[in-house]
Design goal:
Distance between the termini: 27 Å
Strand order of the largest sheet: 1-3-2
Structural class: mainly alpha
Bound molecules: zinc ion
Radius of gyration: 17 Å
Length: 241
């Protein structure tokens, strides 16, 4: 269920689902997509045993503040909602259709600035704003032959894998652009990815493909860093205690 990642930040690139292979046999409205996301978010909470505590509620309020700031210029205006899953083994984040985003305690632990959080949230927002999550929902509706009145029949697992090379690179690029437009430094995303490269070097099973993939992601974001200079100062992460 939870994605255990040391060298693949944010979403697992290794699992590729090609949305273009599936005929869109069904059509849905934004309201339908939002409802599907709410059903899936409730399933995510149930499967992972998430129950609100005062601290989680405070952290989610902070994620919501930063997330709404980043999402304000997204291509799709949706009721973006940001949840916190405190599990330290959840070292990534997950986007669901309609605007639902879960952030793991494992990845939050690696961040030192709000700018890094903004980059991660921007990446997940773009999986939704670029309609990648919507395409996957349409695929699942088609595969399982379910209508928009039957979203309770959706399984959560198909929404956990990443979106392939092109989808992930697009989410990186557009997500960092959103963060930049919200006043955050693009270099924060580079620093976070570089930390994952370092961590990968300490892991015996890190493949050279995973390493070169991370380096390609860093190179793409470096071009955005160059376009942003002079870089804004990064803001310290202001997680509530
Ligand atoms: Zn991703």
């Amino acid at each position: 269920m939870r994605v255990f990642l040391f060298v693949i930040l944010l979403c697992p690139l290794a699992t590729i689902t090609n949305a273009h292979n599936s005929p869109a046999a069904v059509a849905i409205s934004d309201a339908d997509e939002i409802r599907a996301g709410e059903v899936l978010a409730a399933k995510f909470e149930a499967v992972n045993g998430l129950t609100p505590t005062p601290q989680i509620t405070k952290i989610e309020a902070y994620l919501q503040k930063v997330g709404e700031r980043v999402a304000s210029r997204a291509q799709r205006h949706l009721p973006y909602r940001f949840y916190f899953d405190p599990a330290p083994t959840f070292k990534s984040a997950v986007a669901l259709p309609g605007g639902q985003v879960f952030v793991g305690g494992g990845i939050l632990a690696y961040m030192d600035t709000e700018d890094q959080l903004a980059a991660v949230l921007g990446h997940e927002i773009e999986h939704i704003a670029l309609s990648q999550c919507r395409e996957r929902l349409l695929q699942e509706m088609s595969r399982k032959h379910i209508s928009a009145a039957e979203f309770q029949k959706l399984d959560l697992d198909p929404f956990m894998p990443g979106y392939g090379h092109d989808g992930e690179f697009a989410a990186d690029r557009e997500g960092v652009k959103l963060a930049m437009e919200a006043g955050y430094s693009a270099n924060a995303a580079v620093r976070l990815l570089q930390m994952f490269v370092l961590m990968g070097q300490q892991m015996p099973n890190t493949s050279s493909e995973a390493k070169s993939n991370l380096e390609a992601r860093i190179a793409q974001i470096q071009t955005l860093v160059e376009s942003q200079k002079p870089l804004p100062a990064e803001k310290p992460l202001a997680l509530p205690q």
